[in-house]
Design goal:
single chain; 232 residues; alpha+beta; Jelly Rolls; Arc Repressor Mutant, subunit A; five-stranded antiparallel sheet; four-stranded antiparallel sheet; 12 strands; DNA-binding
DNA sequence: TCATTAAATTGTT
DNA sequence: AACAATTTAATGA
């Protein structure tokens, strides 16, 4: 992960939570923000180490996963551009229980713990934002347990798509989830060919629409139902 | 702006 | 894993 302050002025608009702050709070938050790049495969945070701060993905895709004693890695969630992670670890000042790895070249924003705490202390609306974020994360972590039980590859793909779709906070259907099939394969723990076939199946059933550089989620509710049925 | 070329991504075996 | 087909991005007139 390389530091790249030159990106600093490029996009304040891409950080959604800045909008919930007052002018003074926003200025202070902006000053404490740091920017970085991560190449494909680079670790944004390693399991057991301390996290640099609250991490936002401005561009690209980061996989949050845990590795158990036997060396088996489980994907917890993928974080697309616009998403933030690590709030739980920053709050508790604990070493990271999971690792975060860039799946492609990424641009990141980092709000160090001091800046994060300052906002929590001063802004009610920021607290609300973080609470919603934590709540979302909680359900994903619970889902990660069931994840391992999913055997059908198309359901694994459907599950990842559902989470990514939710993570970007898209209430409306027909939203494009921008990621390569290779990246989806990395998230789902499948080969690219397998993901390709699974996507074709899902498209056949009218649940998604496959296109170059992304997948349109046409019926998020139906996708979620399929995954749920797969658990049962 | 448009045509050509290179690079990236996808579909298939 | 390899290959062909398709799509995007880059280049230069």
């Amino acid at each position: 992960m390389t530091s790249d302050p030159s990106d600093a002025r490029t996009l304040a608009a891409d950080i959604r939570w800045l909008d919930v702050l007052t002018g003074a709070e926003r200025d202070r938050a902006w000053k404490s923000l740091r920017f970085a790049r991560a190449d494909a495969g680079a670790f944004v945070c390693r399991q057991g180490e301390r996290i640099a701060g609250w991490v936002g993905v401005l561009e690209g895709l980061v996989r949050v996963a845990s590795t158990d004693e036997s060396g088996c890695t489980t994907t917890i969630t993928g974080v697309l551009a616009g998403g933030w992670f690590g709030e739980g670890t920053v709050l508790k000042r604990e070493p990271c229980r999971y690792h975060a790895q860039a799946l492609c070249r990424c641009r990141l924003a980092i709000l160090p713990a001091e800046g994060f705490d300052a906002l929590l202390a001063s802004s009610l609306r920021f607290n609300r934002f973080v609470m919603d974020q934590l709540n979302e994360r909680l359900s994903q972590f619970i889902g990660a347990r069931e994840w391992e039980r999913l055997r059908r590859p198309d359901l694994r793909v459907a599950c990842q798509l559902t989470q990514l779709h939710n993570a970007v906070l898209n209430p409306r259907a027909g939203t494009l989830v921008k990621l390569r099939q290779q990246e989806l394969a990395d998230l789902a723990g499948l080969s690219r060919q397998c993901v390709n076939r699974s996507l074709a199946q899902l498209q056949e059933r009218g649940l998604v629409r496959v296109q170059y550089g992304g997948v349109q989620v046409l019926d998020a509710a139906a996708l979620a139902r399929e995954v749920e049925a797969g658990h049962g």
